[in-house]
């Protein structure tokens, strides 16, 4: 990922000159290898536009090792330079925590589709910030990590569940990102499907109306609260009843050519709701239990063989960091 896409790294200046003393190299080497695991996330969940986010049990893995010069493996060559989003987020983390930045060998291993909608950029941002703390011998400060990640990404709805795990609501108050977290019921399954094309975040934003009637806001707020309760209880009937967005999905669905077809197929095969994950192009069906989820996954795969399809559970772990000598 490159910084600057969709306005990321707002107001953050990245230093490219990194003078490193022998003592600093020795200190970094003593930290050993840092491994960071960050979950994929789905933002909005239909009626929770720009508020709700869910961590899923599919992760991006990152390894950080002290090096004599920056080296990045596991991504496209054009993304392996000094403007790599993991690296620039690491630099931001060093500045936030008052640490000396060191050259690193970074290895990325990410199976999250790049078509957008499952928080792949958030995993890069959070991993870089977490690595800065770990390489300095600090434990992960989730609150400060989240606030800095929000400043880099420009919004918290993906980074909040990526850091915290579970189902998270979030909002920004000054320099702080405030969250509330719920545990998702174990019976719910999330059938994620990514088409072989992208929807640019800026296009998805431009599709939204400039003004929303107060009646629509009331409709949405009530159903957002009901959705949180239904997810925590694992109540498929309540999810089916409340998950009807009026703020963003009616305007974004036309940007995804296969949305309506997959929506209909998913509902015909047992989904209790079908929604756009984030701003797309990834979509997600929620199903009650393994059998219904398997039916949905099989049906959408047959309807569109080029889909990337995974049946996932909610992840309660959030970002995990491991340091080895």
Topology (elements, then pairings):
Elements: H1 22-31, E1 33-43, E2 52-66, E3 71-73, H2 85-96, E4 104-110, H3 120-135, H4 142-153, H5 159-164, E5 167-173, E6 176-182, E7 188-194, H6 201-206, H7 214-233, H8 236-242, H9 249-252, H10 259-268, E8 273-276, E9 283-288, H11 289-303, E10 308-312, E11 320-324
Parallel strand pairs: 3-4
Antiparallel strand pairs: 1-2, 1-11, 2-4, 2-5, 5-6, 7-9, 7-10, 8-9
Characterise this structure:
A hairpin with a 2-residue loop joins strand 5 and strand 6 (176-182). This protein starts with 21 loop residues before the first helix and ends with a strand. Helix content is 36%, strand content 24%. The protein is globular, with a radius of gyration of 20 Å. It has eleven helices and eleven strands. Strands 1, 2, 3, 4, 5, 6 and 11 form a seven-stranded mixed beta sheet that branches. It has two domains: 5-182 and 315-324, Ribosomal Protein S5, domain 2 (2-Layer Sandwich), CATH 3.30.230.10; 188-312, Alpha-Beta Plaits, CATH 3.30.70. With 325 residues, the protein is an alpha+beta fold.
Biggest sheet, in brief? 7 strands, mixed
Q: Characterize the overall form.
A: globular
Oligomer: single chain
Helical proportion?
Answer: 25-40%
CATH class of the largest domain: Alpha Beta
Order of helices and strands: HEEEHEHHHEEEHHHHHEEHEE
CATH architecture of the largest domain: 2-Layer Sandwich
* Secondary structure: number of strands: 11
Average pLDDT, rounded to a whole number, is 91
Beta-strand percent range: 15-25%
The fold-level CATH name of the largest domain is Ribosomal Protein S5, domain 2
Radius of gyration: 20 Å
How many domains comprise the coordinates? Answer: 2
Which stretches of 5+ consecutive residues score pLDDT under 50? Answer: 1-25
H/I helix tally: 11
**Structural class by SSE content:** alpha+beta
Give the end-to-end Cα distance, rounded to a whole number of Å.
28 Å
């Amino acid at each position: 990922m490159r910084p600057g896409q969709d306005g990321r790294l707002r107001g953050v200046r990245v230093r490219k000159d990194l003078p490193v003393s022998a003592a600093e190299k020795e200190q970094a080497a003593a930290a050993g290898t840092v491994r960071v695991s960050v979950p994929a996330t789905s933002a909005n969940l239909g009626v929770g536009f720009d508020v709700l986010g869910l961590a899923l049990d599919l992760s991006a893995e990152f390894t950080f090792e002290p090096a004599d010069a920056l080296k990045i493996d596991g991504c496209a060559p054009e993304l392996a330079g000094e403007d790599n989003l993991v690296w620039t987020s690491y630099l931001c983390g060093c500045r936030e925590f008052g640490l000396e930045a060191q050259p690193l060998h970074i290895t990325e291993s990410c199976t999250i589709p790049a078509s957008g909608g499952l928080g792949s950029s958030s995993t890069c941002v959070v991993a870089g910030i977490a690595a800065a703390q770990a390489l300095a011998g600090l434990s992960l400060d989730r609150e400060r990590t989240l606030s800095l990640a929000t400043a880099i990404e420009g919004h918290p709805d993906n980074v909040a569940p990526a850091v915290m795990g579970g189902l998270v609501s979030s909002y920004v108050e000054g320099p702080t990102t405030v969250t509330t977290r719920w545990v998702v019921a174990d019976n719910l399954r999330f059938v994620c499907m990514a088409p072989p094309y992208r929807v640019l975040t800026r296009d998805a934003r431009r599709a939204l109306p400039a003004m929303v009637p107060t009646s629509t806001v009331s409709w949405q707020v009530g159903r957002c609260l009901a959705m949180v309760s239904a997810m925590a209880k694992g109540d498929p009937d309540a999810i089916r009843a409340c998950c009807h967005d009026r703020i963003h999905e009616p305007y974004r669905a036309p940007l995804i050519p296969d949305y309506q077809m997959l929506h209909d197929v998913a509902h015909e095969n047992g989904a209790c709701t079908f929604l756009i994950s984030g701003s797309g192009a990834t979509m997600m069906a929620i199903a009650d239990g393994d059998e219904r989820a398997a039916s949905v996954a099989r049906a959408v795969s047959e309807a569109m063989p080029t889909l990337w399809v995974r049946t996932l559970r909610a992840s309660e772990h959030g970002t995990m960091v491991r340091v080895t000598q």
